[in-house]
Prior knowledge:
The termini are far apart. It is built from 8 helices and no strands. Helix 7 (about 135-150) runs antiparallel to helix 8 (about 155-165). By secondary structure, it is mainly alpha-helical. Residues about 1-10 and about 20-60 have low confidence and may be disordered. It is about 50% helix and about 0% strand.
Amino acid sequence: MSAQHGHQPRGIARPLAVALAAAAVIVAGGLGVIYAVVRDGGASHAPGADAGMSASAGQMTAWDARSLPSFITGASGDVQTAYRFAFEHPDVLVWMPCYCGCGGHAGHRHNRDCFVKPGGAASLTFEEHGSDCTICVDIALDAKAMTEQGKPLRAIRAAIDAKYASIAPGTDTPLPPE
C-alpha cells in the first residue's frame, strides 16, 4: 500500500503502534497509583481497610509512590514506621488519643493528626509534629503492634489510655465502635 492512499508504510506503523501501546500502559499505571493515593489517603476508612496497594512481587505501594518530606525521610526508622502506619491505617489511629498535649497546643483530635494534617484525601499533607515527638511515635507504634497481634480497637484503645493517660491531657478522641 502506498502513502498516497492514506496508509503508513509498513515499516513505520508497527513501531508507532508499539510506542502508543507502551505509553497507554504507563499512563494507566500512573493513574492507578494516583487513584490509590487519593482514594486511600483520607481518614474515613472502614475498620480493617488498608490504604496501601499490595507490595507483593515488587509492586509499588501508595506509600512508596508519594514524595515524602525530608522530616520523614531524614527521621529514624521508628518515626518512618509510625508515619507509614498513620498513612496506611487511619482506621486505627483515628480512635487513639494522643497524650503529648497536642490537643491543646495544636488542636489535634487523635493520634493520626500528629502525622497527617486534617483534610480530604485529595489534599493529604503530612504533619511535621510527629517527627519530633516521642510520645506520638510511641502511641502509633504501640497501636501498630497490637493491630498486628489482631487485638480489637477497643482493647488497643484501653491499653493506650492505661499506658499514656498519666503523661499529659489526651486529645478529645471518641471511643471506637464495638
